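Hey, quick one: can you model this chain's 3D structure?
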Amino acid sequence: MSAATNQSLDNYPLCSLTSALKRFQAPRGAFDANGSWRQTYRVYTLAGRAPAARAVGALTLRRRAGDDGAVTLTLDYVKQLVGGSQKVAAVLNTRTDEQLSGPSRWTFEARLLAADGKDLPQTRMKRSAALKNGVITIRDPVETRSIRVAGAHTVNWCLFDAVQRLARRPGPPIAFTLIDHFDEPKGAQSLAFRKEMTVAVAGGRAVRTFAFDHVGDGIVPWVYWVDEAGRLLFVVAGLEGYVLESSVQQ
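Sure thing. Here's the predicted structure for all 250 residues.
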């Protein structure tokens, strides 16, 4: 096996974003993951001939931390589709002491839009959820249903916040239930530190990163890379990738 092949395997699956990494400008300076901030990511599709990752959308995550430990996460996601686009918006309420940013309440809305920006009929979905005594109650205009969860839980997008506050060193895996897409419970999930690695980015600069793996039943593997300050720089989930474009402390 060649040295180049060994390097690709060592960097897998980040090597899927090679073309985007060549343009990536690494942020500098201090970062307080427990504070208030706004981060925007470019969304890439990794389908097709590697390593030509193609930009298809954007994700903006805002974190507002209160003096009492309460945290509000606001998410805006847009992805271009053939003949239109998909938009997802959510507000999630959690706390700074929640290791996985597991929310106690959240609302979310998903929409499909035509090429002219107008909503496609019958494609808008809006729901709310709340956790009490180990039961998540999900409501929409049509029905109310309950999901019982035991132990730690979180919504997939909340892990973008959580990994920025985890210890960047080996440790025991964290077991939890994933509430995928805001309302689909998936058990037997695990989040664990993978390794430290150096990533080459624009201008030949080398960035020291720390990778975390999320695996579990019913999902594709997710891998997160944070920098020395804790900022989440890159994410790869199956055939979708995310690359940080801006990170602003607020």
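One thing worth noting: The chain has a mean pLDDT of 92.
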